[in-house]
UniProtKB/TrEMBL annotation:
It is found in: Cell envelope. This is RND family efflux transporter MFP subunit. Residues 300-359 form the Multidrug resistance protein MdtA-like C-terminal permuted SH3 domain. Residues 1-25 form the signal peptide. It comes from Rhizobium paranaense. PANTHER family: ACRA/E-RELATED COMPONENT OF DRUG EFFLUX TRANSPORTER, HLYD FAMILY SECRETION PROTEIN. GO terms for molecular function: transmembrane transporter activity. Its main location: other. One of its GO terms (cellular component) is cell envelope. One of its GO terms (biological process) is response to antibiotic.
Length: 394
């Protein structure tokens, strides 16, 4: 009997203790492990992104200065040619004959001039002794002047025939990539009319894009503050451009021209940048995305995209306190830079935020933070020279 009462007492104690332990365990769950870090704070420059197209600095439609039948073609379609390379030859036989005829006429004129010069010298000597009258001397002088003029005219005809002969060989007026031949051998070429082919220069190459009124006024304001080159047509301002091939690094160039008025239909102004192109990667007609500096250098707070959460229509980061408590903080986002997201407002840069493990955060639950240090540039990210604001602030 005493043993039975003891067992009942022990059982009653167990029933009284174990439910309380379960409630205690449910009210104090273990802290969730998360990774935390200080945001990156560094100097940045905002830039605006525009879409534009590359265009050759020089472009020439190759025509013949003389008429005739096309006799030879001396290039392969689509190849790179250098200035002075022979491209086409017009049938030279008519121009050879014209040159020979002009040369012969020049010889006759020179012979006549020699005779007229001798006659004038003889007459001048005789007139000095009174053997011939002054009128005879005037006649010889007139013949001499006429013979000299005939020589000059004949020489001009020879020069013109020589020039026409030279024009039968059509050479590249500039270095660049040549198009296909637009006329075949044997066809008649009309002087100054028939287009034989075209050539575009490749190095350097221009990039044209349009800037809207709002950004133009913003640039002008910045230019007035710091003497930026944009106030002077954009000359000399460093820019970068990206093409569709993501494997290519940004190409660096400089603004060198802006139109002198805003288009009253589109409300934009056309701007040009020039880029060196020694590898001939950039081609006329390619689209590109150019980034133009739109601000002075300033201190920016940068955080990983993984550290940014959403609370209805707001973007938030989670700040961890010294006791492990987590507090959401509303932020306004800016462009992505150096692999991070720029925080326009809402953070000072001194906070410790959750950068990994957002899914483990629960209201009222403390976390077990594991502190790491973020690098100045995120791994596997191309570090641009300027920030892009193509994505509007959120």
């Amino acid at each position: 009997m005493p043993m039975t009462l003891a067992r009942v007492a022990l059982l009653s104690c167990a029933i009284a203790v174990f439910p309380g332990s379960q409630v205690l365990a449910q009210s104090a769950p273990p802290a969730a492990p998360v990774t935390v870090a200080k945001p990156v704070v560094r100097d940045v420059i905002d830039s605006d992104e525009f879409i534009g197209r590359f265009q050759a600095v020089d472009e020439v439609s190759v025509r013949s200065r003389i008429g005739g039948y096309l006799q030879e073609v001396h290039f392969q379609d689509g190849t790179i040619v250098k200035q002075g390379d022979l491209l086409f030859v017009i049938d030279q036989r008519p121009y050879v004959n014209a040159l020979n005829e002009a040369t012969a006429s020049l010889e006759v004129a020179k012979s006549t001039l020699t005779n007229a010069d001798a006659q004038f010298a003889r007459t001048q000597a005789l007139a000095g002794t009174g053997s011939l009258s002054a009128s005879n001397l005037d006649d010889r002088r007139r013949d001499l002047i006429s013979a000299q003029a005939n020589v000059r005219g004949a020489q001009a005809a020879v020069d013109r025939a020589s020039l026409d002969m030279e024009y039968t060989r059509i050479t590249a007026p500039l270095s660049g990539r040549i198009d296909r031949r637009l006329i075949s051998v044997g066809n008649l070429v009309q002087a100054d009319q028939t287009v034989l082919t075209t050539i575009v220069s490749l190095d350097p190459i221009d990039f044209y894009f349009d800037v809207d009124e709002r950004r133009l006024l913003s640039y002008a304001d910045e230019a007035r503050k710091n003497g930026s080159a944009l106030q002077q047509g954009g000359g000399g301002l460093d820019v970068t451009v990206m093409i569709a091939d993501s494997r290519q690094k940004p190409f660096k160039g400089k603004l060198d021209f802006a139109e002198n008025r805003v288009d009253n239909q589109t409300g934009t102004i056309r701007v040009r940048a020039r880029f060196p192109n020694p590898d001939l990667i950039l081609q006329p007609g390619l689209f590109g995305r150019i980034q133009v500096a739109g601000s002075n250098s300033y201190k920016a707070v940068l955080v990983p995209d993984e550290a940014i959460g959403a609370d209805q229509d707001q973007r938030v980061v989670y700040v961890v306190g010294a006791d492990g408590s987590v507090t959401p903080k509303s932020v306004r986002l800016g462009p992505k830079l150096y692999g991070y997201r720029v925080i326009r407002s809402g953070m000072t840069g001194d906070e410790t935020i959750v950068v990994n493990g957002l899914m483990r955060i629960r209201p009222g639950v403390k976390v077990a933070p594991q502190l790491i240090q973020l690098p100045q540039e995120a791994a596997n990210e191309e570090a641009p020279a300027q920030a892009s604001v193509q994505g509007s602030d959120q």
